[in-house]
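User: For a benchmark we're assembling, each entry needs the component sequences followed by a predicted structure for the full assembly. Here are entry 17's components. Please fill in the structure.
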Amino acid sequence: MSADNAAVNPTRISREKIDVLPTLRDLALVSILGWALQLIATELTPWEALGGMAGLYALCAGGLFLARFVPFYLPSVAWISLLGIAATLPFTPWDQAVLNLVAEIDFLALSVPCLAYAGLAVSRREIDVVKKSGWKLLLVAVFVLAGTYLGSAVIADVVLRITG
Amino acid sequence: MRTVRSAVSMWRLHVAVLVIVIAAQFIGVQQIPLGTGAILLLPLLYAFLLGVLLNPNVISRASAIIRQREVQAASPIIVIAIMPFIAKFGTTIGPAIEEIIEAGPALLLQELGNLGTVALAFPIAVWLLKMGRESIGATFSVAREPNIAIVADRYGLKSPEGTGVMGVYVVGTLFGTLIFAVMASLLASLDVFQPEALAMACGVGSGSMMASCTGALSESLPEMGDTILALAGASNLLTYATGMYISLFVALPLVERLYNKARPDAAVAGKDG
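Assistant: Structure for entry 17:
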């Protein structure tokens, strides 16, 4: 979620340079945090929660490897998403096994560590940007974000009503 | 071994996060009634707020616990920390694949909802707030990383357009989760849109925006939980694939044109650098 890559290499979206080992390590750290949160958020036993987090960890690790080594570019989160789909398609022999592991994992609790890191990562530069941009840009930004959401919701709603 | 040691040296960061997330999770989902609707406050919002309050760049006394090196180390972990969440989303799409394919046309077309930023925010920037070329960078997209790259390529980040896109990027990073949670819970409680449409719209921004948006939606409409996750996840995946092209080939030229129409005397500057 850093703009640095974009700023350094503006002419094209640069391929992520993934350091596999440190990434897998940090992924393990956030998975441990996620495991602790599952114990608070769900009725899962510690072992069930561990199985669920391990399953998700495997999908993430697989996605990282694909992003790193497949010869064309897709962001690692897109690979992870695609692997998650491939692991749970109903006509595959393995979908029930995967779902048994991860189905009861609470997705909302999974998102909490990310935002804690994001809050701690706010840099002086970002605060300067907000101060310098002033209230006008702040106001416009609110309308941009709200407008995107509203725009998509309106189009989706109309198309759904037409196509039934 | 070195990988392990460098993680241990960042123990302050990870312990701070551990304390924050457990506190946030224990506070749980809270509801603020607002007219006929309601706004939902979610654990991820408290986690962000608590993180900001421990950030030495915001509260200088926090530097006793969190120093600049922890702040710098936190940044690359953000995208890693969202990965298990994205994986979980993928596993909700698979079982619902038939539903997704049925909703295909709506899913594809709502990607054009990005243009909602142009319809809503551009007039406000140009006519109401009388902003200059900043409005081009600010309103052509939802200002995530690929959009910054487009602006950097075309105008440079030091240009007015660059200031516009960076401003919205930072505001989105700071307040995006809150805005998406508010929009989703308000619109869900107003009962005007179909829940499926609101779910698809959750996927148009970053991963954490989707997290708060789907969180708010599925708390408001618990019986639709699985469908909401599947549709939002599919929409988010499409956004990775198409979002950049829509903003590059449709939205940016459109905003350029509108701006030149709105400010004919300013049209000389900035064209294609």
